[in-house]
Amino acid sequence: MKIKKLFAITGIVILSLTAILVVSAAVAYNMAVQKPSVRFLLSNAGFRTPEDYTKKEIFIDVKGARVPVLVYRHAWAKSDKYFMLQHGLTPDGYRHPRIDRFAASLCDATGMNVLIPMVTGSVEGGSLTGAYDRMADIYVALVKNFPGPYRAFGACIGANILLMALNRVPPEIYPEKIFMLGPFADGRALFDFYNKLTRPEDIDIMVKMAITLNMDIFSEAEKNLIRKAIAASKPGVTDRSEMKKIMGEKLYNDIAVIKLHHRDFEDISPRTMFGRKRSNCTYFILHSKTDNIIPYFEGKSLADFMKKSGISTKFLGTEYLEHAQNQASVTGFIKEMKYLIRFFDELFEGDVTI
User: Fold this and answer.
1) Of 138, 127, 188, 189, nearest to 162 (Cα)?
2) Same domain (yes/no): 288, 233
3) SS3 of 113, please?
4) For the chain, how many structural domains are there in total?
5) Is residue 324 a part of any domain in this protein?
6) CB-based burial label for 123 (10 Å; 0-12, 13-18, 19+)
7) What is the rounded distance in angstroms from the CA atom of residue 52 to the CA atom of residue 245?
8) Both 69 and 202 in a single domain?
9) Long-range contacts (CB closer than 8 Å, 24 or more residues apart) made by 297-302
10) Do 17 and 104 belong to one domain?
11) Is 116 helix (H, G, I), strand (E, B) or coil?
12) Do 130 and 250 belong together in one domain?
């Protein structure tokens, strides 16, 4: 009888302790998720759904052209700050599900307004220098239509294009903060790295597809097939079998083994990206150590150059997210959470209105 009573009491104690632990965990989670950096990271990684935001597409006039812009505003917080996001130069890039989640997570977590303008680029057949000019014109028009302090974001090649474009805008409207994910330091060195790879599969085929669109070795009909394949690609590592099916085996194989050369890309360097000193801007660079498109050493080299040049720079190397991954892994997220929180605390400092 005493044993049964003992078991009963033990069971009650265990249940009580379990309940306390569950409640404590729930309270800890709720407290943590109120922290903007944690809220953003959890949402952007797909562990929670951003809710406190609205999204609307508008059109602005940019030198006579109507340019669509996705505008994200917090549901109840008011902010005079704007975070402009530079999407990748792919069809409907400003509607890409990854940049949409990024924008929603950013707005929901900080209260800042987020803008994603559509920027036509190399997929439509234009040059990179043309993309710089368009991006600069769009940025100037955004500041005119939405006056206030600006922050900006770009990922991969888009980050480098963003820097090149912002060199063309008046210094008084240059962003106060720029966040870059997986940028490269030197275009010529990057292409040398690509061309020395012995196995075609060591580089995501999307890189070669995007770059070869502006190379003269392919006919317009072949370039149309490349554009079609890019448009059909999905978030994450590019499905090579799907690309081969769309482009045909011969064109796919030609792209896989081609040596990359592109004057506009090869002209990108620290000297051209930072031709004008912007003393009022702090740059934040996050680069995956397992990046399968832009190698980690490129982002690290860029950060090292900037710091040595006296440019205010924050850098974090991480395994939290591969370049082309759609979501973070749970283990990677937990392992590096404290470093990521510190990084985004600094990025969001002074900008949170909720």
Assistant:
1) 138
2) no
3) strand
4) 3
5) yes
6) buried
7) 41
8) no
9) 298/183, 298/184, 298/185, 298/186, 298/189, 298/190, 299/180, 299/182, 299/183, 299/184, 299/185, 301/185, 301/186, 302/183, 302/184, 302/185, 302/270
10) no
11) strand
12) no
Q: What is the pLDDT of residues 191-245, one digit of tens each?
A: 999 988 877 777 888 888 888 877 788 899 998 999 889 888 876 678 999 999 9
* Calpha distance 103→73 (Å, rounded): 10
101 and 149 housed in the same domain: yes
> Are 170 and 307 contained in the same domain?
yes
What pLDDT is recorded for position 16? 46
Residue 66, H or E segment: strand 65-74
Residue 87 gets the label, from left (phi > 0), alpha (psi -120 to 50) or beta, of beta
What residues are paired with 117 via a beta bridge? Answer: 69
pLDDT of residue 12: 52
**In this structure, are 138 and 71 located in the same domain?**
yes
Beta bridge pairs of residue 150: 82
Residue 14 domain boundaries: 2-33
Does 172 fall in a domain? yes
